[in-house]
Amino acid sequence: MAVKQAQKFTEEELKALKSLQSQSRVATLQFGELYLSKFRLEERETILKNQLKQLEQEEAKIAQQLTEKYGKGTIDIETGEFTPTE
What we know:
Layout: H1 11-70, E1 73-76, E2 81-84
Antiparallel strand pairs: 1-2
């Protein structure tokens, strides 16, 4: 059997391979950055959901307190006036 000798790639072939390798590294880095951004966005979403739940609970508590004090009705936040419902 004949043993094949090692061959060298042309400069153009090497440039093309190195360019692909470099582009692959850049894409991998960008993917990692995208993943981290997504992770941070999901964390922020969770925090905001929790804040919204707290605000809704506080709103319900205040609404209950005001109903107990003034009865059922509507409140004009701008003027501070309460109009009882019949």
